[in-house]
């Protein structure tokens, strides 16, 4: 039995699993909030704790794992195991040797990959993209991330490919969390949507969004809060989601006009939460922007769900997503 560790390091939560490779069975899992202060050191401790808890559940000592893969935001150098520009992680300035630091704490070898590349590859290998040769993964969550598989190979460009969240959908448009204007993420990223909702409510707009957030004991508008507000037919939530869908349609269609991949996989916190119905809305929003409008790509919801990032991270141990780095 070969057991692997996989960790999805997100801006708000850390998900760790222990996976039995032959049967693709998740034997242990654990979730932790991402520390909001303490920088990379605190993050590494939380990663180690989550992995130990998952390993406990799987009844294996962490040092007995064949390897541990970590999907991390930011710019990842898989060779050296360093992570930089992880803007969604608080206090993470400059370059940090994540693989070495975590390996020291858990006693197993650690490989790090970019979170979105990892999740895209997981969908290609094991999820919604199993039948595809080429696909675009769109991860609609805190930000909007993108990953590419072209003709059976992951495509990283010079290391920075797939940033669909920063495709310009409107010149001189809304300010993006990246500091630029008019990016897709400025309209569809959860962080940008929350900032916009907050401004609208301050201006006197009626909405149950922040009430639902407080009722649920949250301090951000997570995907569950948006879903609940839509269920209550909250006008502001409906308007901001419609605005996000329009932007996603324009951005994804533009990427398709360039790449003509056969499949788009829609994942991420919001993408997964809203499911097929929302995927159809996004496909509809794309239609008017597709140059080859007679032959749209297929649009599917990511299949690996919440654990997709962590499952994908275990694949890093095979070197799959690290190819051509
Ligand atoms: Zn941007």
Note down, in words, how this protein is organized.
It is a single chain. The protein is an alpha/beta fold. It folds into two domains: 3-119 and 307-324, Nucleotidyltransferase, domain 5 (2-Layer Sandwich), CATH 3.30.420; 130-303, ATPase, nucleotide binding domain (Nucleotidyltransferase, domain 5), CATH 3.30.420. Helix content is 39%, strand content 20%. The protein is built from ten helices and twelve strands. It has helices at 39-57, 98-106, 115-126, 184-188, 190-202, 209-215, 223-231, 235-259, 268-287, 308-315; strands at residues 3-9, 13-20, 25-33, 67-72, 75-77, 82-84, 110-114, 135-140, 144-150, 153-155, 263-267, 298-301. The chain has a five-stranded mixed β-sheet with strand order 3-2-1-4-7, with helices on both faces. The chain is globular, with a radius of gyration of 19 Å. Zinc ion binds next to loops.
Characteristic terms for this protein:
globular; single chain; Nucleotidyltransferase, domain 5; alpha/beta; 2 domains; five-stranded mixed β-sheet; 10 helices; binds zinc ion; about 325 residues; disordered C terminus
Uncertain segments are: 321-325
DSSP, total strands: 12
Q: What is the averaged pLDDT score?
A: 93
Per CATH, the superfamily of the largest domain is ATPase, nucleotide binding domain
Span of the ends, CA to CA: 29 Å
Indicate how many domains the architecture comprises: 2
